[in-house]
């Protein structure tokens, strides 16, 4: 029994608690209203997942019901067979004994076959359910806004997709059917023994009283412990993921010791909380074994005395002992179900929370299409503040004609990135509107907007796969000719063909096989292939070395030709290709004009920045 307990203890407990809202803080307690809301939300999700496999569930339920009845019948038939055998020895009439023996054999075979059938079918629909859940979670996570991903750490999303989904699979695959089977077995066993002998049945039934009291203690004690385990596991996974994602910074600053110490603390916390869970299960195991022994001893003493007195057949005593020995195994299974239920319930809460989160930038009910967009950008009376209420853009008015290349310059914190976020609609303004060709961005679908406006950032993320695959992200389904043409236009073809397998070279995880400048060129080729009307370059040339920068200038001329472009520029060479320069300070546009004209105004902000750039180049 202890081995059974050990095997069914949770392997992965990575499911952090979310209390307030979907992105709320991890905590260990909910208000009653929050608990009710979480349960309803979780049950809606579970119901939607079970509905497509409802007939398989019904099949397993029928097999479980009939198989449990057959299993319960075996001890009674064994006892009756023993009494029939003694009677046949006296009378020589073996027909009744043969019939009961055959019935016992058929019942045992039927119980085994149906139990095996249920165990074969359940994993199939459990896997189908899990596959659907993984697909939903992955697809929905990609639909959610950038703001969601900035708040919801990657470690937590990994927990949702891995250990939480696995907890639900284990619950559906074995927990529910085992729980139902155990309850049926308990009830049917009591009824069967009552039919054989009422006093024996009452003794067995009396054993349920301390069992019920202990079960209440067990559930109370395990609930909070399981929640602590999941919080601790989530923290441990988060620490690991954070260190691995930032491994270059960790090694560059020799922070291995500090990160190892933090991970050790998280792992120790996880170990200690798991130890608390094992303690509760150890107590449970001891209690069940002791109670089963006590009930069996009472039945042996009481029914044995009645057999000696001639008031109880030997077969009934044998059946009673067999039932007593089996009776408390389902209690153990029910406690295992409590274990799985705790994990599955928490996992359902967290996953349903993610699935019910809506994008902060919702699509309009009646969208306006951008077919034939020219790229005329208007920023009309826009104000923007982050969640702490600090104004980032007090008020911005800006008009960018179609086809104009605009360079945004200014010191760090001036509001440049926030402005391009508004133009790309990764955030919405609190007041005012951002329009493209006269259409408010909030009236355009996200898919339509992403086809029209493309951003290239300083951190050009490349996925595992070939160079060609990464360029093709700009336009899925593009031909190899179009992919190579895009690379040629931005000046990336030369270095790509010099790679070991050319365009078919695997760039490895996060593009680690390429230099920063090469990754940026690939991202330019991707943007060229996407062919947007508006292009945003957010410090996109800052990671290029001088040879790569000179190479990319020609590519940028081609990339920007005929397009509206907004470039956050920290380099003089980038500003030189702009038709217009906007200088920002404290969330406002303080200078706006032709770069040559602004340089000529020796006292202006841009002239000062221009002078600093030239000095740095000479240095």
TrEMBL record:
Residues 377-611 form the ABC transporter domain. Coiled coil: none annotated. Residues 60-343 form the ABC transmembrane type-1 domain. Residues 1-10 have a biased composition (Basic residues). SMART domains: AAA (SM00382). The keyword Ion transport does not apply. GO terms for cellular component: plasma membrane. The chain crosses the membrane at residues 60-82, 94-114, 171-196, 202-220, 277-302. Pfam families: ABC_membrane (PF00664), ABC_tran (PF00005). SUPFAM superfamilies: ABC transporter transmembrane region, P-loop containing nucleoside triphosphate hydrolases. It is found in: Cell membrane. Keywords: ATP-binding, Cell membrane, Membrane, Nucleotide-binding, Transmembrane, Transmembrane helix, Transport. Residues 1-26 are annotated as: Disordered. The keyword Metal-binding does not apply. It is a multi-pass membrane protein. InterPro entries: AAA+_ATPase, ABC1_TM_dom, ABC1_TM_sf, ABC_transporter-like_ATP-bd, ABC_transporter-like_CS, P-loop_NTPase, Type_1_exporter. One of its GO terms (molecular function) is ATP hydrolysis activity. Belongs to the ABC transporter superfamily. Lipid exporter (TC 3.A.1.106) family. PANTHER family: ATP-BINDING CASSETTE SUB-FAMILY B MEMBER 10, MITOCHONDRIAL, ATP-DEPENDENT PERMEASE MDL1, MITOCHONDRIAL. This is ABC transporter ATP-binding protein.
């Amino acid at each position: 029994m202890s081995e059974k307990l050990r095997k069914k203890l949770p392997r992965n407990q990575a499911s952090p608690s979310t209390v307030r809202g979907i992105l709320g803080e991890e905590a260990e307690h909910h208000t009653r209203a929050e608990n009710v809301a979480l349960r309803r939300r979780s049950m809606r999700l579970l119901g939607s997942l079970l509905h497509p496999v409802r007939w398989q569930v019904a099949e397993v339920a029928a097999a479980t019901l009939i198989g449990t009845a057959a299993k319960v019948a075996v001890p009674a038939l064994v006892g009756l067979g023993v009494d029939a055998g003694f009677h046949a020895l006296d009378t020589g009439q073996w027909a009744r004994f043969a019939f009961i023996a055959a019935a016992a054999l058929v019942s045992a075979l039927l119980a085994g076959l149906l139990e095996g059938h249920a165990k074969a079918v359940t994993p199939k629909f459990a896997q189908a359910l899990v596959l659907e859940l993984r697909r939903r979670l992955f697809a929905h996570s990609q639909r959610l806004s950038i703001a969601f991903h900035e708040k919801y750490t990657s470690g937590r999303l990994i927990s949702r997709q891995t250990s939480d989904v696995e907890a639900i699979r284990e619950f559906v695959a074995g927990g529910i059917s085992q729980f139902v089977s155990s309850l049926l077995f308990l009830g049917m066993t009591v009824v069967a023994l009552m039919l054989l002998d009422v006093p024996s049945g009452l003794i067995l039934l009396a054993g349920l009283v301390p069992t019920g009291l202990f079960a209440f203690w067990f559930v109370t004690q395990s609930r909070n412990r399981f929640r602590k385990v999941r919080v601790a596991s989530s923290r441990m996974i988060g620490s690991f993921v954070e260190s691995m994602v930032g491994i270059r910074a960790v090694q560059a600053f020799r922070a291995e010791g500090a990160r190892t110490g933090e991970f050790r603390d998280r792992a120790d916390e996880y170990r200690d909380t798991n130890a608390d869970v094992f303690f509760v299960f150890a107590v449970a195991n001891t209690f069940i074994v002791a109670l089963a022994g006590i009930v069996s001893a009472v039945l042996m003493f009481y029914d044995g005395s009645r057999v000696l007195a001639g008031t109880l057949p030997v077969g009934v005593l044998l059946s009673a002992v067999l039932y007593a020995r089996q009776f408390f195994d389902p209690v153990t299974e029910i406690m295992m179900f409590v274990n799985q239920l705790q994990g599955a319930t928490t996992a359902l809460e967290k996953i349903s929370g993610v699935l019910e989160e809506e994008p902060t930038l919702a699509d309009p009910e009646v969208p306006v299409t951008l077919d034939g967009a020219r790229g005329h950008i208007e920023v009309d009376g826009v104000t923007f503040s982050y969640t702490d209420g600090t104004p980032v853009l007090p008020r911005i008015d800006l008009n960018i004609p179609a086809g104009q290349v605009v360079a945004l310059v200014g010191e760090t914190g001036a509001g440049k990135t926030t402005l391009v976020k508004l133009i790309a609609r990764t955030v919405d303004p609190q007041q005012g509107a951002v329009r493209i060709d006269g259409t408010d961005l909030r009236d355009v679908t996200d898919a339509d907007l992403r086809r029209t406006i493309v951003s290239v950032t300083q951190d050009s993320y490349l996925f595992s796969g070939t160079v060609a695959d990464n360029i093709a992200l700009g336009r899925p389904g593009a031909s190899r000719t179009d992919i190579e043409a895009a690379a040629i236009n931005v000046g990336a073809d030369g270095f790509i063909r010099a790679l070991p397998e050319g365009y078919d070279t695997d760039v490895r995880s996060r593009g680690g096989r390429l230099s920063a400048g090469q990754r940026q060129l690939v991202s330019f080729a991707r943007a060229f292939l996407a062919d947007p009307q508006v292009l945003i370059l957010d410090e996109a040339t800052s990671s290029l070395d001088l040879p790569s920068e000179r190479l990319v200038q020609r590519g940028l001329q081609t990339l920007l030709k005929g397009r509206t472009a907004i470039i956050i520029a920290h380099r003089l060479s980038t500003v030189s290709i702009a038709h217009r320069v906007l200088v920002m300070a404290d969330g406002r546009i303080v200078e706006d004009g032709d770069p040559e004209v602004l340089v000529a105004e020796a006292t202006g902000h841009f002239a000062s920045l221009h002078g600093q750039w030239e000095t740095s180049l000479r240095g």
